[in-house]
Amino acid sequence: MDSVTTPYQELSSTINANTLTADYVFTPEEIQSVANTGANLPLADRWELIRAELSRRHPGRVADTLKWTFNAAGNVICNIAVVYAAPNEYVAFFGTPVGATGFSGYYTEADVWDCMVRGDMYTFDPGQLEKSVYHAGDIAYLKKGTRRVFRYVDSCWMIDYARGNIITMFPFGVINPAAYNTLDPKSAWEQIANYGELCIKSIFGI
Description:
By secondary structure, this protein is an alpha+beta fold. The chain has five helices and eight strands.
């Protein structure tokens, strides 16, 4: 019997074939260095300073303002503000003031780096019996095809940077939580709209 290809699979394949070979705008090292900006400032001022520095380095590509909304991936509810997006790459500010524990996601077509801005994060991989600890200034790498459990300790904030076929991250990261967990389509739509708006900005410069 012939298999049926869904519209989502067709879109994912098209993006994978046509756009994912493009050069990346950012590097994990650059994101990590920018994450250390304004360490002594109040958090809101610090995020704005980091956004402005990214915009200075990459004119016309970074969001002009921070649009915060909820993200509920991995049974964790955090604040997220996407500041750069392309079909093969995104940069987002991410975190929680109250702590959380959850699952990283299992991404087979994308790599993710978490560049710590404030607070501590604990993680463990399958079979790992002692936790890994990440402090402000550290960077945690989730290689495609791997997964882990994490804990954000109290107030914990980071820059989330991903490379790969970004649309394949949406079912776990955005769509399924809204459909089956939080039942919060508003937050899901805000994330999709912000990502789409910034994709247009990065591709067409508008």
